Amino acid sequence: MARAPITDEQDFIDALARLGDISACAVADVLAAWNLRSVRTERAQEFARNIVRVLQAAVDLGNDPATALSNIKNYPIRSFENKTALDMVEEGRTDDVVAYLQSLSAGYVG
To answer: What does the pLDDT look like over 20-53, one tens digit per residue?
Structure first.
């Protein structure tokens, strides 16, 4: 099955949305299959790389890829004014999201 090339950020968001509630293995296969070099614009390539970085940080917390994907698309983060991780990536704040997720893996510090 041929995949349409991702040409901009919305294409990547749409591709993520089409994954729906599929198995973790299928999510991993899809992410591995996306050849980010085939993305048409530099901005879309950066966006796709950032989503993959956030997804990896979420998986590193012990989530399966399907749960991690669902969380970055749908779970509001109180520390970021109830924006989702995807919202934050769209705003150019990928490093903040990755740092936040990594801090969660370190546990509560207080």
So the answer is: 555 555 555 555 555 555 556 677 677 778 888 8
Residues 6+ apart with CB under 8 A from 40: 5, 6, 7, 8
**2 falls within a domain:** no
End-to-end CA distance of the chain: 51
Number of domains observed in the structure of the chain: 1
Q: Is this prediction's pTM over 0.70?
A: no
- What is the per-residue pLDDT across 87-107, written as a single tens digit (0 to 9) for each? 999 899 999 999 999 998 777
- For residue 52, tell me if it sits in a domain: yes
Domain containing residue 15 = 9-106
- Whether residue 16 is contained in a domain is answered as yes
C-beta atoms surrounding 53 within 10 Å: 16
Domain contains 21: yes
CB burial readout 57-79, b (16+ within 10 A) else e: bbbeeebebbbbbbbbbeeebee
